[in-house]
Amino acid sequence: MLTQIQGLHHVTSIASGAQENNDFFTKVLGLRRVKKTVNFDAPEVYHLYYGDEMGTPGTVMTYFPFPNARRGRPGAGEVSVTGFAVPTGSLDWWADRLQLFGVKGLAKETRMGAQRLRFQGPDGDGFALIEAEDSRAPWTGNGVGADHAIRGFHSTDLRLKDQGATAELLHFMGYEKTETLGDVSRYVRPGGNGADTIDIETLPGAAPAHQGAGSVHHLAFAVEDRAAQIAVRQSLLDTGWQVTPVIDRDYFWAIYFRTPGGVLFEIATNEPGFARDEAPASLGQDLRLPRQHAHLRDVLEAKYLEPIID
Prior knowledge:
Shape: globular
Structural class: alpha+beta
Largest sheet: 8 strands, mixed
Distance between the termini: 45 Å
CATH topology: 2,3-Dihydroxybiphenyl 1,2-Dioxygenase, domain 1
Strand order of the largest sheet: 2-3-4-1-13-16-15-14
């Protein structure tokens, strides 16, 4: 069993437009944009990161906004809901705020003793605000004060046809099954980073998901440093998983592998962080380009990357 994984590092999804995506996460949810860069493999597309003040692992939602991308089709084999932790007693305030901004899909529910507010992102993305006792310091702004602000991720929901092999994988990654309610089973990383819960919803008859705008592209788990990542990679390889080599993503190092249920997992390092090329006070303000794409700045800004108005 692996001991190095701390919980979630980030969640990366697909959007259909950069401005709408930026407005939703900063002006509606009140998160901080901590990095404005581009997709390593498609530099004509932004890669936008939102989180707490420093983009602490376990708080960061990231997006590839492909202009006019077709919406994904929900189904089995995907992350269906990304859950954020908010203070206990704050859901009524959030319901009023989200309704004021015209957010769709608002629905209150209770799961395993916690109050949740479900809602949709601009591309139909599945989200929930979940009341929790969470000591992580929030980013505050855009009308969201500390009494209500998002603390980081609480959990993610995986929707699968069968949970058996994925449950075994999570157990190998250090997660423990804590509860089952109907077709949802909960897995928690004891002593994790706060973003340490995975719920698996088992729907044997569900059609396969088709990825597009509003879909989660991959789910990243946090390890402290490169040494821990190398140890995790070797253990996964020894167990028979097909894992990529280590890839430098500028703000973390990453490895990737496909899970039995179809969800793409990443293991990302906490180092070096988003302040490696920007001062903490100005994170996310300027376009930062990976070294291999630096020579494309003029053409990218003139032809491909729509200006984002903050």
